[in-house]
Amino acid sequence: MLLPMLLLAAIPPTISDEAKVPPYTLPDPLVCADGRKVTDAKMWNEVRRPEVFRLVEENMFGRTPDTRKLQAAAVTEMREQGKDALGGKATRTQFKVWPIGKKGPSFDLLLYTPNAAKSPVPVFVGLSFGGNYTTIEDPAVFLPSTWVSKQWALNDGSNRADPKLRGGQSRRWEIEYLIDRGYAVATAYYGDFEADFPEGWKEGFRAAISPAGVNTQWKDGEWAAIGCWAWGMSRMLDVLETVPAVDAQRAIAHGHSRLGKAGLWAGAQDQRFAFVISNDSGCGGAALNKRIFGETVGVISGYYKGRGFPHWFTARFATFSEREEFMPLDSHYLLALVAPRPLYVASAKEDSWADPVGEFLGAVHADPVYHVMGLPGLGTKEYPPLSKSVGTTVGYHVRPGVHDILLEDWKNYADFADRVLAKK
Ligand code: GTR
After folding, report:
1. Which of 75, 127, 192, 314 could form a disulfide with 62 if both were Cys (CB 3.0 to 4.6 A apart)?
2. How far is the C-alpha of 88 from the C-alpha of 342, rounded, in Å?
3. Model-level pTM?
4. Per the residue annotation, which of 106, 128, 257, 331 is the catalytic one?
5. Where do the DSSP E strands lie in 85-191?
């Protein structure tokens, strides 16, 4: 008997054994469309960077619309402030922001700044999976009123945030640690920008910004959910630029997993971010796509029915499923867009789905772009031992354990930031 399953496109087995990785070749980020080789920073910035940018845009995340006109209507209101947060160490400020005016959607921005600081401090800027109230055990933090995924929702099928899950992701945020290290921490909920499911765009900023109804991931070149989340990070930074306790010229874009993909794209597009961190961003983030290991373009992009996240990427990305060799770029192009600004890529040893070695190789192959600009970059091709942070302008470490963001990661990020964002 023919099982119905057999009629669906079969998903090739996941490769998690280094010896089984098929051979692949990578395009050279320093070779221009006309064949010339980039020789210096000027040529990278003026000729090649715009080409690389367009390749990432067209083939992965789509084009972010120019919203500057809409943003003229932006409204930011301070909803709450507590000067004695974290036992008196920090000031908590909560803003409600309507980045395209009050007719559009809003997001909640949560900010902690260290009370001990004598001058404006650098700020970590990142999105969360569960809402601001999940990032810290602080009863004053508001719950999101937008869609939340099942993991964070009341058990009534409503997709509304469950108040019992306050602080549920605090282990991943280490806000007190960062405050002690002299950093500010700003976060917003990714679902305030767009709910994370294929139809989620309808309620979020994508529909509000493109009211013609131009859907979405199916149209070649249009932005998708990752693009919308990345746009949201820039809107967070707009607000942070107005906060005196924060030095927005030392803003750090970061994110874990799918939000690491969004963080990289935010950092690539918005050069106000002074430092960009990818934590376990995997496929569609720091990991090479042409290296078949763990999650693949086909699996993530929804090429196999019922699997993956078709709404994350622009339509063309899925067309490289099982034909990655035709991709005119790879993750090193995305990473190189951060140059000359510092970049940090981190992996977890047991996170084979995100391909730790592929994430490292993404950074290795972005390195020539740093070098052509006269910067030391990562400076090694050798995979480092566990828990050793390597690199100068580009950092990398792999820590023990699974897909997550833990104190060891934050410690490396703060150490690296201390160095690369130090005031001269
Ligand atoms: C997985 C997805 C990964 C990663 C992860 C996450 O299901 O396959 O690419 O983004 O979700 O965001 O936690």
Report:
1. 314
2. 32
3. 0.96
4. 257
5. 90-98, 107-114, 121-128, 184-189
